[in-house]
Specification:
The complex is a heterodimer of chains A (about 425) and B (about 220). With about 425 residues, chain A is an alpha/beta fold. Chain A is built from 12 helices and 14 strands. The chains are: A alpha/beta (about 425), B alpha/beta (about 220). At the A-B interface, strand 13, helix 10, strand 14 and helix 12 of A face helix 4 and strand 3 of B.
Chain lengths: ~425, ~220
Amino acid sequence: MANDDSEFQPDGDSVGLVETQFVTLFEAPNQLCLESGVRFGPIQVAYETYGTLSPEKDNAIFVCHALTGDAHVAGWHAGEERKPGWWNDFIGPGKGLDTNRYFVICANVLSGCKGTTGPSSIDPETGKPFGLGFPFITVGDIVKVHSALVTHLGIEKLLAVIGGSLGGMQVLKWAAIFPDQMASVICLAAAAKLSAQGIAFNVVGRRAIFTDPRFNGGEYYDDPEGPRYGLALARMVAHITYLSDVSIEDKFGRRLQHSDQFKYDLDQETEFQIGSYLHYQGKRFVERFDANSYLCLTHAMDYFDLAEEHGSIQQALERSEANFLLASYTSDWLFTTAQSLQIVSALVDGQRNISFVELESSKGHDAFLLEIEPLEQLVRPLLERTRKEIDDRRVAEARIRGDGAMNGGDRVE
Amino acid sequence: MSKKRYCMPDPQAAITDEVLMQHIERESRVIDLGCGNGRLLEKLRDEHGCSVQGVELDLSEIYACIGRGVPAILMDLDQGLATIPDDAFDLAVLSQTLQQVRHPAAVLSEMLRISRRALVVVPNFAHWKIRQQVLLSGRTPVTQSLPYSWYNTPNLHFLSMADFRELAEQLNVRIVHEIPIIAGRSRRRAWLPNVRAESLLYVLERAVSRNDAASV
């Protein structure tokens, strides 16, 4: 979310140079039936992969990105844009998601603007961008596209799905609707539904876009400017929700940007460092994000309510045999520990395999992107253990199958 | 220098997993409050076919639990067990921890809210060697089982077998079994247990209230 924009220094433990790949799914007549009832397709999916898929295809991990993320989660791209993937510190050789051992997949979400079909894509029927004519997308719809991509890649069962924030919501929904498609579920800084307070911030963000005169009902793709001020303002508001009072205090305090003294000038918009920072974040954001996508994805987030969609959280997840790992962060006030604990409660009640930790951090909601070390400590044993369970099961099954044929002889593998 | 003034078996070690496991039904759903690295729960799962859940205060122990495939929740017993739903377990285990929580009565009540039965192991501070030490040295005992000075001990409460019985009655908790641990072994019957036991293992249940009993 609040990705650091520092220059990327390719390091020895990086997955290195990567490219985004594309595949077209849900072509007629097999369009995706969206939750809104609309049939939609074809859908182009942008995705990246790192590491090598094992011959047994049992080492694949799918990363679900958050609201404004993309498929570029690790390594770096060729050309001018040498920016690291958004979770590069966590994914790579020897890292938390160790690409020497695991095959990591990340895809841009449906209705995004980074290569997967979204409102800025060309509607084949009109030859023009969809704009607000793009269908209403839910977290469930997003997950169905992820799931189809995994199937397309020939993977029957993922070792893990992992995601934070809106990515964590996708992870939960995935476990609910395709419980057999993953052996473990890692859900960070997320909730079974967005709080009313969270919806409130999204409302303000969307309002900022709608009231930008250049929004033009979502038809702004011919306008080189577009609703940039509205989108930047939406980002500025949202960005505050990703930080914490302490992290803002530590990073900026009440320091001024250019002077030690107040100017007593009403025209000064970015006198405080925090103001300057938020403006910068807004400005950077509009360079890489589409306003219509922002509307789609914040709506998807607002609508998501796992309990409502499945009767209860417990019912939603009762068919999953996966190893669940949930984590929240002490200073995250957008997705609170209390919200994670509601999911934990439901999973304990449903006798699922649930581990939960609240991690200490002053970094607010963004902690899941920044606090890499505790995350590695949690995820490594979970992945190792889960893979061992899969191995043990395979050996046991092979032994049962092999006993007759091999006359009780050697172990079959 | 505070040398240990005498040695008695460390109840942490003395209460072996075997002793606890003897009192845990096969294939039951068990929650261990203060599960450490998940060793007991792993055994219960693998050898007793139990469905297990750990609760632990120390994050590094949670990593160990996850590595064993023992699901564990980071939680401070002093903050309550509100996350755990009513009657979610057949048995809640609390070994050598009750004397260390701030509100033991509240923890006991919570255990019997989330679980049909509770298995509690507590040190017996009325053991004769402790009595002797207090009497002879006139100082707070420092022993192998209580290896702490009075000012840095994790043990906030000092109780005996008689004390525990009193609390159980106050909380309307039925003592199903009361098993003295002497020299690291559980004894069904023991002579002068409140003097000789270094620890006590209790199996507890919610007492049927008089009204419920009358209506049956």
